[in-house]
Amino acid sequence: MSTLHDSADAAMDREDHPEIREGVRRICADFPGSYWRDLDARDAYPSDFVEAMTRAGYLAALIPEAYGGAGLPLRAAGVVLEEIHASGCNASATHAQMYTMGTVLRHGSVQQKERYLPEIAAGRLRLQAFGVSEPSTGTDTTRLKTRAVRDGDHYVIDGQKIWTSRALYSDLMLLLARTTPLEQVQRRTEGLSVFLVDMREAVGHGMTIRPIATMINHNTTEVFFDGLRIPASSLIGEEGRGLRYIMDGMNSERILVSHESLGDARWFIRTAVDYARQRVVFNRPIGQNQGIQFPLARAYAQHQAADLMVRHAAAMFEAGLPCGEQANLSKLLSAEAAWEAAEACVQTHGGFAYAREYDVERKWREARVQRTAPISTNLILAYIGEHVLGLPRSY
Ligand SMILES: Cc1cc2nc3c(=O)[nH]c(=O)nc-3n(C[C@H](O)[C@H](O)[C@H](O)COP(=O)(O)OP(=O)(O)OC[C@H]3O[C@@H](n4cnc5c(N)ncnc54)[C@H](O)[C@@H]3O)c2cc1C
From ligand 1's centre to the CA of 210, what distance in Å? Predict the structure, then answer.
């Protein structure tokens, strides 16, 4: 018999791309909460999960068929991430491959694409590391200090990155570094360049990677560059235009990771509703109390609104329309929807939310990061204030 709960759950994942959703769910079923809890306890990388997703072709979703990928639209790739999160799994070990790919696809040379994309699609190479953030400059990306200086057929790299996730488990890193000093450019957005660094040759020869202990198992690291020499052919596109290339990919990145928050919200709401229907206190299911029911109803409403915005943004992106506003709104609303759902789920579970075996506390910690990375909520609000509402730039 179909219940309100079942239909609410069906409505939450209104089945576009049903085969992809089903395929991802089937894989995720082999990676239950115990798998993720074990990794969490050991700060370990989900190699088996990444391998299973790669084998099924999902991590090559955005690579064109000509290079051995699936050539799917952005929405389909987003659905993969959403289902991973809605299944209680985590896509952080895999998602960068989807969004860093865009920079190589759009701005890489034919030689770079022919050399790397088929290998990535086949799962023989991982492009999972994305080195933008630096310890002293934070969100103020144009002031980043990592330098790449041309020396004959090479660039020599010096500097430091922080929060470079998955660097220990990736073969390639997309790196943003300054090639022209800030004092010598007319606009501070100029003079930054993007490189596709082969980390297999770099580690131990000018690149050092150190893991950072964090509240979530995100395999994130600090990366130090000390005279690292990379071939000049590692440069993506033209020297000095790197920030533009990275910014070009921001909308797709925001839309993709918004799907993860949607998946999280679905997981929290489903898990909380199940618990609220079963847990009996004072001789009634706790879900009968408005104090439990209303936060879940509100979380559901927020999820539905965010879901519509994410679909809208993805459709605009695929139609080739400017979608900075929609991509940013998607990121803001989906991260907030997931966070409200996480709170409601924790509150619904009472003390049991804190017991690791329920996975609620793990998913709660994991969902929180979406309000900070890859872009923090404040910076999205600043974007909306300035670029959508036409208010003076606040920073
Ligand atoms: C788990 C994790 C994984 C990550 N993975 C990667 C990765 O793979 N690659 C990578 O390059 N980076 C990565 N990051 C970095 C992430 O993108 C940054 O942490 C994020 O962009 C914020 O930068 P910050 O930490 O330097 O904060 P800061 O820039 O120091 O900002 C701190 C706070 O101040 C606020 N703030 C700053 N300036 C303003 C302003 N003008 N107006 C209003 N508020 C402001 C911010 O919104 C934020 O809340 C990761 C971070 C985390 C936590």
Answer: 19
171 SS3 class: coil
Closest Cα to atom 36, ligand 1: which residue?
378
Cis, peptide link before residue 374, omega less than 30° from 0: yes
Q: β-strand 172-178 against 154-162: which pairing, if any?
A: unpaired
In angstroms, the CA 114 to CA 97 distance is 17
Rounded Cα distance, 177 and 87, in Å: 37
Tell me, yes or no, if the pTM score tops 0.85.
yes
**What spacing in Å lies between the alpha carbon of 376 and ligand 1's midpoint?**
6
Range of weakest confidence among 102-106, 165-169, 187-191, 302-306:
102-106
Residue 366, CB-side half-sphere exposure with 13 Å CA sphere: 29
179 in contact with ligand 1, CB cutoff 6 A: no
Average pLDDT in the 319-323 region? Answer: 95
From 327, 319, 312, 338, select the one nearest 379 (Cα to Cα). 327
**The pair of three-digit structure tokens given for residue 304, joined into one six-digit string:** 């539905």
Which of 310, 154, 303 shows the shortest CA–CA distance to 229?
154
CATH code at position 277? 1.20.140.10
Helix axes 74-86, 95-107, angle to 10 degrees: 170
Identify the domain containing residue 317 by its residue range: 247-388
Give every CB contact of residue 260 below 8 A, 6+ residues apart in sequence. Answer: 81, 82, 84, 85, 91, 95, 370
Q: Within this chain, do residues 296 and 279 fall inside the same structural domain, yes or no?
A: yes
Q: Choose among 166, 213, 215: nearest CA to 364.
A: 215
141 C-alpha to center of ligand 1: Å? 10
Q: Is 132 in the same domain as 225? A: yes
pLDDT band at residue 9, thresholds of 50, 70 and 90?
Answer: low
Same domain, 375 and 272: yes
112 shares its domain with 135? no
Query: Residue written as tokens 């990061």?
Result: 369
Residues 6+ away with beta carbon under 8 Å from 392: 386
* Gap from CA of 374 to ligand 1 centroid (Å): 7
Best substitution site from 161, 163, 250 to test ligand 1's pocket, by max atoms within 8 Å of Cβ? 163
